[in-house]
Structure formats: structure tokens, C-alpha cells
Amino acid sequence: MAIRLGDVAPDFTAESTQGPISLYEYLGDSWGVLFSHPKDFTPVCTTELGRVAALKPEFDKRNTKVLGLSVDGLSDHHVWSLDIEETQGVELNFPLLADPNRVVADLYDMIHPNADNTLTVRSVFIIDPDKKVKLTLTYPASTGRNFDEILRVIDSLQLTADYKVATPVDWNHGDDVIIVPAISDEEARILFPAGWKPVKPYLRTTPQPNL
Ligand code: BEZ
Questions:
Q1: Which residues, in sequence order, are CB contacts of 201 under 8 Å at separation 6+?
Q2: CA–CA gap between residue 126 and residue 196 (Å, rounded)
Q3: Among 2, 10, 39, 160, which is most exposed with the fewest C-beta within 10 angstroms?
Q4: pLDDT band at residue 1 using 50, 70 and 90 as cut-offs
């Protein structure tokens, strides 16, 4: 069953490189990023895991816990993690779930049989502190993901959770944002004392409110 935006992320318990993990317990009150890899000892996955490990301080800054998954066993994960450290120059500093029986992969619909019958696609789920799924992303095995983009989305999700704004195309932290159309000009005057640029009645840009 596909997981859609707004759904509650299903809880699970599984083995990981850092011991058994229950998703909800691991996340606590944090945001979370659960992401899958097709297979251990594969080149694109090796670069992705190294990149996420290097970006761990950025995820920490955003109160976000990362959790990888690959449908291989724990002993392979441990050997592979040495390769990741050797080739990517960074230790695997977050848990990688071992899911050889594809329990979590099936729960999160990470196997797309028309792409591959056994390996997972590259799925990403961003989960908020209420355990609601706020973003899903699906990449094919042959295309590595851009984890700077995942951080950018987390910035947007955290901002839009607290303020009645949306973020425009190619927005980055610090750029102007859009006042959501449901807010009247009268309300906007209270909520956005810095004012706004009325490009169109439905397109009002304002400085990022939490800077
Ligand atoms: C990779 O991570 O490099 C990869 C994994 C499965 C299929 C193709 C590439």
C-alpha cells in the first residue's frame, strides 16, 4: 500500500548497524528522513551514504534524524560500512537498517516490481515530529539523490509548519517567501509586519519571517 503525504508513517522495529531500532523511539520528537538503497556494495549507494554521513551535522542542526535502509543483512552492512569510510572519507555515523526479509521495504512500498522485483528503489520519506509523512521521493537505482535538496526541503517544511507561508521555486533559507493566498491583506499586516511585495493579489512576497 503506497504511503502518501499526510499519512502516519508506519512504526517498525528492525536490526541496524547501531543495534535494534524502533522507528518511533529512534525519532522521538525529532524530524526524520528514512531513505532506501537498492543493495550493499553498489557504487551509487556508496557515494550516497558517504554524503549523508558528511551532512550529518546539517541534519542535526535541523533536529532531524536520518535512517538508511538496504535489503541486505547486517554482516554485509558492517563490511560495506568500512568501504564507505575508506572511499568516501567519512564514517557511517547514522544507522543503516538491515532488511533482508523486506519487511520494512514492503511496509513502505519501496520495491517497485516493474523497476526491479527484489531491490528497493531509492525512496525518501521525510517524517515530522507528529510522525506524519511530509515528503516522499522516488528515484531509480541508476540516479543518486541530491541530499542538499533534502535539507532544503526540510528548511521549507519546518518554516511552513510555523508560519503561514509557502516557499517559491528554488527557494533557499534566507530568501523571500510567499504569503499563503488564504491569508487576507488585513491578517497579513498583523502576521508579517515587515510588509510584502504585491506582485499579484495572489502572489505576495515577504522576507523570511523567522530570521
Ligand atoms: C548503485 O548503487 O550503484 C546501483 C544499485 C543498483 C543498481 C544500479 C546501481
A1: none
A2: 30
A3: 2
A4: confident
